[in-house]
Amino acid sequence: MVVCDLNVIDLSEFASRKLDIARQLLNVGTEIEFFYICGHGIAQTDIDAAFELNKGLFALPREYKETLANDRANKGFILGYSAERMKAGILREGYLSGFDNSRMQQIWPGRDHPAYKPGMVQFMLQCHEIRSRASGQNWLQTRACCNNHCPAVEGVHLPERMLRSIAHTDFEILTLLFQQVGQPGLEVCPGKMTTRATVKSQGTWIPMDPKPGCITCNIGDALQYLSDDCLKSTYHRVRTPRPHEYKGARASMAYFANVRNSTVLQGPLKKYPALTFNNILAMKLQAPTNQIEQKVLEEYSPEDYLKYQDDLPVGPEYE
Ligand SMILES: O=C(O)CCC(=O)C(=O)O
Ligand SMILES: [Fe+2]
Predict the structure, then answer these.
(1) Locate the Fe2OG dioxygenase domain: which residues (predicted)?
(2) Other beta carbons less than 10 A from residue 313's beta carbon
């Protein structure tokens, strides 16, 4: 069951409440895994504006959006636009925006949506400001923001167990997930013993509906590694609406905070070897533990994928 408001952490008055907030974060991180933060300092009007920018982007013609894909043409895990998952029968299109670099410059929507680039960069900078508080770390880099759009399914026949987003864990340290009130669907499968096998056979899925004024947070694989499995990277998915539920479009923005690829990670208990994030990712991709990793492998060799990861633009250093 959803744990009422015990899993909402207030980040306000951060400087004077730092220890208290750290304790609460450790508690939710170890016990509940997915949680919400409020008092994060991003105005609702700014969040709404970022959602509006994405609404404008996804409303552009499909042929145009497909030109905003990176050079590996529309595969979905690297920067830019992807509807690949829609083609695969998964009802979602996305645009992965990063900070500016030569590759991003080729795939920002240009004169068809000139407000998009400055607006999204500004929004990511705002996320960048809060992510170090929520993670308790000040060495994280912004890597990317995955802007998701699930079209309306009114009148669409949905086969049973169809998903808008397949079950997966996130690769990075921490995800700040912006959802919109009135657009449910996100579910998590917590539990320290949850694995790719158990998530399929006996996983209990718990709704993580949007909460007004809150950002949904989840721990990524890299933080699980760094915490010797004390903090769990939780499986999550987005389900399609049930017969009597809202069937309109659903939007979300997942802002990923991560370390540099060359940063060496090892937990205090040294349960795992000291490895760079890149090496950890390579290992995971060689022995995929979830469906997204599996899909990466269907389209890239691990070396290929990591080469592109290396080229992801990083945000400003946070002092
Ligand atoms: O759309 C959602 O609520 C979840 C998105 C997500 O899990 C992701 O982009 O990694
Ligand atoms: Fe995710």
Answers:
(1) 138-259
(2) 18
Span from the CA of 166 to the centroid of ligand 2 (angstroms): 9
- Class of the CATH-defined domain 8-311: mainly beta
In this predicted model, what pLDDT tens digit does every residue of 127-178 receive, in sequence order? 887 755 655 555 666 668 899 999 888 887 777 677 888 788 888 889 999 9
Q: Is 252 in the pocket of ligand 1 (CB under 6 A)?
A: yes
DSSP assignment string, 237-299: EEEPPPTTS--S-EEEEEEEEE--TT-EE--TT--S--EEHHHHHHHHHHS--SHHHHHHHHH
Domain extents for the chain? Answer: 8-311
Instruction: Write the pLDDT tens digit of every residue in 97-129.
Output: 887 667 788 889 988 899 999 999 999 988 887
CB 173 within 8 A of CB 222: yes
| Predicted ipTM of the assembly | 0.99
Within the chain, what is the greatest distance between any pair of CA atoms?
53
Q: What is residue 5's three-state secondary structure?
A: coil
- First-to-last alpha carbon distance for the chain, in angstroms, is 39
45 phi, psi to nearest 5 deg = -65, -35
| pTM of the predicted protein model | 0.87
Q: How many A from CA of 292 to the centre of ligand 1?
A: 12
**Which of 218, 223, 221, 256 is CA-nearest to residue 237?**
218
Unique residue bearing structure tokens 């802007």: 147
CA pair distance 79, 74, nearest whole angstrom = 9
The CA angle 145-7-11, to the nearest 5 degrees, is 65
